[in-house]
Specification:
Distance between the termini of chain B: 55 Å
Number of strands of chain B: 15
Structural class of chain B: alpha/beta
Order of helices and strands of chain B: EHEHEHEHEHEHEHEEHEEHEEHEHEH
CATH architecture of chain A: 3-Layer(aba) Sandwich
Strand content of chain B: 15-25%
CATH topology of chain A: Rossmann fold
Structural class of chain A: alpha/beta
Strand content of chain A: 15-25%
Distance between the termini of chain A: 48 Å
Oligomer: heterodimer
CATH superfamily of the largest domain in chain B: Thiamin diphosphate (ThDP)-binding fold, Pyr/PP domains
Number of strands of chain A: 7
CATH class of chain A: Alpha Beta
Radius of gyration of chain B: 20 Å
Strand order of the largest sheet of chain A: 2-1-3-4-6-5-7
Number of helices of chain B: 12
Number of helices of chain A: 10
Largest interface: A-B, 36 and 39 residues
Helix content of chain A: 25-40%
Radius of gyration of chain A: 17 Å
CATH topology of the largest domain in chain B: Rossmann fold
């Protein structure tokens, strides 16, 4: 009988610690499937971030360096420059990448670093217990916006995929969701393109995954999944914002 | 390149950069700040000639994290800065110490607090020798007092860093970085360091990781004791210079540029018949505490002299035998007086 479904080789055979209904597990799997397809398990070095995704080394059967909070893009830069033939990627949440690590991701992209960045946007700080993130929606309740996020006081949800698409060094930038099969297929395609951006030495590849956080959204997994389509996608539109066709100019990066 | 010559007249900053490349440093990450800019400038010019990589990062924080990344692969890499920038690097230093990743960091210190000024100061002694960042860790600290030592000790820093899989700090100051002296080039003798921990991709071996997070019951306790044991082992690499200790009645203790000036003051004292010796710690951590203790069995009067209002003096007081008189003379940033000024201070505490 032909096997049609299995655990990706890139993943270790242990259960995820993620909460029920959290999309991290799905996104881990999408990333792992794509890395399997490109046969990158033995070539990959991961710069892990701080947050719910901190335990990458427990789940991915690959070399992992733990980066300080927000600094994964800078750490990945150092790894990639020292090991240009390895495949180097980061996996970061919205607090990590879009708040404390904003400078690092923008300048890594602007230098056209040949690294791939997987960015999980669940509009909240998960690990620390549900505080406002830079991506938190206007009016959204969090433990530090108990009356809802007021843009005059606490700013607006930040759009990283669009922001990075404006930089010449970004080779690929897309926003995807994994809330249904159709979007999941598109997410996988985007993941492949972000991997190719590095393999083809075009520049930085970036995928923003919209994700649930049922625990801190205080929703059932089912309701949290519905929120992606009903509330997040209208504000964080899905799509490809940058796709470099030709290799970057000689001398760049 | 400079290497073809045997000697050259160079700045301390350039000597640091030359020593680093000679020792096999192939990656440099930095951010401009006075008075250490000759280091990134030299690296940007000369690293590409040896197949290396120079990155001018967006910040000191990014620089130290690039260093963390490059060194996690087993490569030799360096970052440099000056006081305010070194404050920003403390986060990365703590992570590197916690994850046991080597790496060389140079502080051509200026003066503080805050933006302070660009004149020489030794106000970063506590930060350098007490870890500097969060957590119970130490970095090995080397303090040159000449352009030659800027070169020699930077080379040594790479070996120490690989030996202990721990960051090593080279602590100079504005005077050492900016002054020119003849530098004698030396061929670096490569040592063998097995780097089984290096992240190179899990090809033909199990996947591995470098981390500082320990959440399981008791794990972090064990980790911290292991680090402590390592810091104790560093004592075998303690270095210091001692001058005129035979028959000394007063021992001056100073490091770096201050010690350099005081060598002249102490010689002047000797010429006047005063029995004044000098101990210059070269490793500030680990500190030559045992040597100072042994010296204090013979000499009852010590004078710590620093370009700050009193930091290393605490280590001198912790080192000496009870009953030893330890005086202090310090200068906040703003001036570096001539040897005769210090001679006057030495005479004030010289025992009758």
């Amino acid at each position: 009988m032909k096997q049609v479904f299995k655990r990706p080789d890139c993943l270790v055979d242990i259960p995820f610690h993620f909460c029920p209904g959290c999309h991290h597990g799905i996104i881990h799997r999408v990333v792992a499937e794509v890395l399997d397809e490109f046969n990158l398990r033995e070539k990959a070095i991961i710069a892990a971030s701080v947050g719910c995704s901190v335990f990458m080394y427990d789940y991915f059967d690959m070399d992992v360096i733990e980066a300080p909070h927000g600094r994964a893009a800078a750490v990945a830069t150092g790894v990639k420059r020292a090991r240009p033939d390895n495949f180097v990627f980061t996996y970061q949440g919205d607090g990590d990448l879009a708040a404390i690590g904003t400078a690092e991701i923008i300048h890594a992209a602007n230098r056209s670093e040949k690294v791939t960045v997987f960015f999980v946007n669940n509009t909240i700080y998960g690990m620390t217990g549900g505080q406002m993130a830079p991506t938190t929606m206007i009016g959204q309740l969090s433990t530090t916006t108990p009356r809802g996020r007021d843009p005059q006081e606490a700013g607006h949800p930040i759009h990283m995929a669009e922001l990075l698409a404006t930089l010449a060094g970004t080779a690929y930038s897309a926003r995807v969701a994994v809330n249904n099969v159709k979007n999941l297929m598109k997410a996988k395609k985007a993941t492949k393109q972000a991997v190719r951006a590095q393999l083809d030495k075009k520049g930085l590849g970036f995928v923003e995954y919209l994700s649930t956080c049922p625990t801190n959204w205080k929703m059932t997994p089912e309701k949290a999944n519905r929120r992606i389509a009903e509330e997040l996608i209208p504000i964080f539109p899905l799509g490809v914002f940058k796709e470099e066709q030709a290799p970057a100019e000689a001398g760049v990066g | 390149m400079e290497k073809k010559r045997k000697k050259a007249l160079v700045k301390g900053n350039e000597a640091v950069a030359m020593g680093a490349i000679e020792a096999g440093c192939r990656f440099y990450f930095g951010y401009p700040i006075t008075p250490q800019n000759e280091i990134p400038e030299y690296m940007s010019a000369h690293l590409p000639e040896v197949g290396g990589t120079f990155i001018q990062a967006e910040s000191e924080i990014a620089s130290i994290n690039m260093l963390l990344g490059a060194c996690s692969t087993g490569a030799r890499a360096m970052t440099s800065s000056s006081s305010p920038g070194i404050s920003l690097k403390q986060e990365g230093l703590s992570y590197m110490a916690g994850s046991e990743i080597p790496g060389v960091v140079v502080n051509m210190s200026r003066s503080g607090p805050g933006l302070g000024g660009i004149s020489p100061s030794q106000g970063d002694y506590f930060q350098a020798t007490r870890g500097g960042g969060h957590g119970d860790y130490r970095v090995l600290v080397l303090a040159p007092d000449s352009v030659q030592e800027c070169y020699d000790l930077t080379m040594l820093a790479f070996d120490m860093s690989d030996k202990y899989t721990n960051p090593v700090l080279v602590l100079g100051d504005a005077m050492l970085g900016q002054m020119k002296e003849p530098l004698e080039f030396k061929k670096y003798q490569p040592k063998k360091f097995e780097k089984k921990w290096a992240l190179t991709g899990a090809k033909g071996r199990k996947a591995q990781f470098l981390k500082s997070l320990y959440l399981d019951d008791g794990e972090l306790t064990v980790h911290n004791w292991n680090l402590f044991a390592k810091y104790k082992r560093m004592k075998e690499d303690i270095r210091y210079e001692a001058l005129f200790l035979d028959e000394a009645r007063l021992v001056v203790v100073a490091f770096g540029s201050m010690a350099r000036v005081l060598k002249s003051s102490v010689k002047m004292a000797q010429d006047e018949g005063l029995k004044v010796g000098l101990i210059r710690p070269i490793t500030l951590f680990p500190y030559p505490a045992e040597f100072i203790r042994e010296t204090s069995l013979q000499v009852k009067n010590f004078l710590a002299m620093e370009l700050n209002t009193g930091q290393m003096v605490e280590d001198v007081r912790l080192s000496v035998e009870p009953g030893t008189q330890v005086d202090f003379f310090g200068l906040p940033p703003g001036s570096l007086p001539a040897p005769d000024v210090f001679l006057k201070e030495i005479k004030k505490v010289y025992p009758e």
